[in-house]
Every structure is written in structure tokens, then in C-alpha cells.
Amino acid sequence: MLTKAAITHGKGEPFQIEEITIDDPKAGEVLIRIHATGVCHTDLIVRDQYYPVPLPAVLGHEGAGIVEKVGEGVTSVKEGDHVVLSFSSCGDCTNCRSGNPYACSQFFELNFTGKMKDGTCRLHKDGQDISNFFGQASFAYYSVASERNVVKVPKDVPLDILGPLGCGIQTGSGAVLNKLKPNAGSSIVIFGCGSVGLSAVMAAKVASCTTIIGVDVQDSRLELAKELGATHTINPKETNTVEEILKITGMGVNYSIETTSRPEVLRQAVDCLATLGRAVVIGAPPIGTEVSLDVNTVLFERSVTGVLLGSAVPQLFIPKLIELYKQGKFPFDKLITFYSLEEINQAGADSESGVTIKPVLRIG
Question: CATH assignment of 171-308?
Fold first, then answer.
């Protein structure tokens, strides 16, 4: 079948809208007509080859759409279902079988090497295979994804806002609700108030944290952080961030989340912790990036951990986020600005400049 897609041909090059061929779904796979898809920071750093996904590729990994066809053996969705697409996992390794698919032993191979689980491609142009991304390649009118990527969602919520739940919003909120699991009344600081960081702010409010600090260099984002639940905000251009956090809390925060991908900010996220505090790393810098920490800071019962995709099982967690949204407790739609697929390069530029927090491409 022919479909239109935004193709990445070379490192750092603009996305090109072109016609490609997409195969029918094989066993265990689903064909989805994409309604909308988020543009994530990870799409942009892969375009720039921070992570070496083979090119040419169709990126996009926050798709939402309607099931068009299912392959043999698919039981969790059927034609006509509304779905969100998340990450790919094998389902067979120890981590997947123990309920931790975000830590799948084949995570990199299934999400970053451009091929499906059977080692072949579903996308082609002029006889050449085109890499997919995160097992979905949702910068296109149609996508073939593994059943394990697919999350059935209710039809009473607009599909065009749901795609970012598959990655960025799931990641920020899951870092709080699934990984840190803060106690009511605790303190937390979120470094970076983009879509991931603001999702963490909203989740911290859901978790009844009573001191929620947002840190960002853009005042407009800090204002939105306050609207979404932050009790305090800090602009590092105006003050020493760690000193200000200690002033607010008296002894440091119980939890910190780093979303900016900057090593010097990760250092701050550790230095601002109280004893027994925990820092979570979400930001994805180029492979090989290192950070310098004071060992004695960590020695005194502070910990640092990474988080992938919010430590979430998407089929369980995304419906919970949607229910929180329906109850008015998780208004993630306030982060979204809509673009057409043809405006994808502008959407990427607006995201990188900070003009837009979460670009979403309306497609179908």
C-alpha cells in the first residue's frame, strides 16, 4: 500500500514528505491509520544522529490512530479500535516476563535499529528498505507496529491529543508515579519544564507532593509550571539554583528529576538532594556523555537512577493517565500545539527554540 511519510534522509537534514510503500502487518502486528503524532526530543536527536538509527528512516514514536487491520494472532485490538502507540519490547526476556518491558533486553534492537522483531522492514521506497523507529514510525499516514506497541484507548477522548502519552508524557509522569513513588507531603524538583518535566510536575501534584519546584530558563514555561502544580519556580539565569532549592526546603529535596540532557544540570540535581534523596535521570544526551559528581555527596545515602519510558507498562499506565485527564487531575492537553504533517520542520524548530512545548502533527 502507498502512503505519505516524513522521511529523514541524512544527519541533520530537514524532513521530506514523500510517498512510500508500507507492507501489510505480519503475525503479531497491527496496521494503524495515524490520526496524530507527537514530535519528541528523541525524534530530533535521532534526526541529528545522537543515536545512530540507520537512515533513511521514518521517525515518530508518539502515534495515535485507528486500527485498520490486524495480523494473525493479534487478540488485544481489532479493526476500528482507537489506539496509542508506545515503545517496542520482545515479550520473551526475563525483564519483559517480570513486568518490566521498558527494561527489555532487546530494547535497543527493537526501537533503534530500524527493523521489526523478525529483522525485516515494513517500509520501502524505490526498492530500498526504509528504517522504522520505535517499532512504529508514526510520521506517516499509516504505521505497522507490533501488538506490544499498541495500547487500546477509550473513544470518548480526542485521539489528536493522546499520542504524546506513548513517550514524553508517560516518561515524565511515570518517573514520579512509577519510579520515585513519593510520599505525600514530600518535596521534589524538576529540572527542565518541557513536556517531560511538566508531566512530572502534574504527576507530583497527583502524588500529593507539597513542595514542587520547577526549574527552567524560560519564564513562560515557569508560569505554566505554576498553573499545573508547581509551588515554587527557579530561573537559573537569575539565581544559584542549588542555593535557592536549599533555601526553599531548608535541607534539600527528597526527589529530583533531570530532563535537560545537560551534565552540569544533572550535577545540580544530585547536589540539591537531602540525605536519603533520590535523583532520576531522564534527559538523553549524545552517547558517551559523562558527568562529574562529588562521591561524598552520593556516599551520604543519596542515589541516582535512570528511567526509560517512565518505568511503565503502557497498556496499564496510559489508561490510568487518561482517566486522570478525564477527572481534571492531569491536564496534559495544555502542553500541546498542533501542526500539519507538512509543517513538521517548523514543529521541530519551535520545539527546539522553546516556542512550543509539545508539538503534535495532525495527520489523518
Answer: 3.40.50.720
